[in-house]
Write a structure and sequence with these properties.
The chain is mainly alpha-helical. The chain is built from five helices and no strands. The protein has helices spanning 12-24, 29-42, 47-53, 58-71, 90-101. The longest helix is centred in the N-terminal third of the chain and has 14 residues, at 29-42. The termini are far apart.
């Protein structure tokens, strides 16, 4: 038989905080689903049933519960950032814009217009 994974004992404040996350309906769907998994585990629902109810795998539910037991509420919030990382910082982009609006000759360059290259 597979190991039984349960969330650690949660106090009333933590229970209310989990309920607020679930009821709020705004914010990250990932956080909402993770909070739901933890709360169901706290209510003694088995991992397989939590996986069924939350439309995910039992392994994912176990991971969420283990992470919550280790890191608490911090584990409910995704660590990733969406999209491709920025190539240039804001100060760099401002400098590029300033240079692009100037003439190449002002920078000691021997041509009259900028090219994309």
């Amino acid at each position: 038989m597979a190991e039984r994974v349960r969330v650690r004992e949660i106090d009333d404040d933590e229970g209310r905080r989990l309920l607020r996350i679930i009821r709020r309906g705004t914010g990250s769907v990932v956080t909402w689903r993770r909070a739901q998994m933890v709360l169901l585990s706290a209510q003694a629902m088995p991992v397989a049933k939590i996986a069924e109810v939350t439309f995910t795998s039992a392994d994912r539910v176990r991971d969420v519960i283990h992470n919550f037991n280790t890191d608490g509420f911090e584990s409910l919030y995704p660590k990733y950032k969406g999209g491709r990382p920025r190539t240039f910082t804001l100060p760099e982009r401002r400098e590029i814009k300033k240079i692009s609006k100037s003439k190449p000759a002002e920078h000691g360059l021997p041509f009259s217009t900028w090219s994309l290259a």
